[in-house]
Amino acid sequence: MDAKGRIGLPTRYQERVLAACQGKFVVTVDIRERCLVLYPLPEWEQIEAGLNRLPASNPESARLKRRLIGYATEINTDATGRFLISPELRAFAGLEKAVVLAGQGKKCEIWDKQAWDALQAEVHEADFSSPELAAAIDSLAL
Description:
Strand content: 15-25%
Number of domains: 1
CATH topology: Chemotaxis protein chec
Structural class: alpha+beta
Oligomer: single chain
CATH superfamily: Transcriptional regulator MraZ domain
């Protein structure tokens, strides 16, 4: 991340990602972790539609929508695949200088490097042997 809060897409993925969404993304906060989540605009539109279908009368649904939709910010990449993260979003995730952009299927997480390293230390010690997870992993043929 540069001094202005710009982050660049990894060069090897730029062409494919930009073709899929014409450089239009939405960045918002994660609901479980202190990181940001970057969605290609078409993916976000599906998520937002789903969130809007949640019952407005349910206090938990309302809080979830306030958090995810409230922080959601549309962004565009520049010609070099960089995009700007607002000061509010940077503050939420504790983004300082070094960041990690971690692909997660149809989205990317944006982490402060130190927080990412701490998370990875936990992941290395994790036990992935619960029966439910073991069955899911087996179905993927890993």
